[in-house]
């Protein structure tokens, strides 16, 4: 995902992401979520995407190579994760999240 694509696409997709992905609870990792809870919630977010190859969905899956997501889909995934955990991931850091485990690790280290 490149910064230019994310910056261009994000405002338009933000409304769609907010309406489709209502957070179950507004808790970040600092609010006491275990890594297992984070993993479950991230996988649940990914399951909601039609394009995700569910047979390959795992904590170690790469968005593009394993799950079949293109760069625009990856932007939507990051936005959905932000919404799920009530966090904001800076563009530069979001561009580096290319796997499920990287998303999980980012959330686990993110303060409230």
Automatic annotation (TrEMBL):
Keyword Protein biosynthesis attributed: no
Record bears the keyword Lipid biosynthesis: yes
Compartment list: Mitochondrion
Metabolic or biological pathway, per its Swiss-Prot or TrEMBL entry: Lipid metabolism; fatty acid biosynthesis
Annotated family: Belongs to the acyl carrier protein (ACP) family.
PANTHER family reported for this sequence: ACYL CARRIER PROTEIN, ACYL CARRIER PROTEIN, MITOCHONDRIAL
Species annotation: Polyporus arcularius HHB13444
GO cellular component: a single term: mitochondrial [2Fe-2S] assembly complex
One Gene Ontology molecular-function label: acyl carrier activity
Keywords of this entry: Electron transport, Fatty acid biosynthesis, Fatty acid metabolism, Lipid biosynthesis, Lipid metabolism, Mitochondrion, Phosphopantetheine, Phosphoprotein, Transit peptide, Transport
Protein name: Acyl carrier protein
């Amino acid at each position: 995902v490149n910064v230019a694509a994310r910056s261009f696409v994000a405002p338009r997709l933000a409304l769609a992401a907010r309406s489709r992905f209502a957070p179950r609870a507004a808790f970040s990792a600092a609010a006491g979520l275990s890594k297992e809870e984070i993993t479950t919630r991230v996988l649940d977010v990914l399951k909601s995407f039609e394009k995700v190859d569910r047979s390959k969905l795992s904590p170690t899956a790469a968005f593009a190579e394993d799950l079949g997501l293109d760069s625009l889909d990856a932007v939507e995934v990051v936005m959905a994760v932000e919404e799920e955990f009530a966090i904001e991931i800076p563009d530069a850091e979001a561009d580096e999240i290319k796997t499920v485990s990287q998303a999980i690790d980012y959330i686990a280290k993110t303060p409230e």
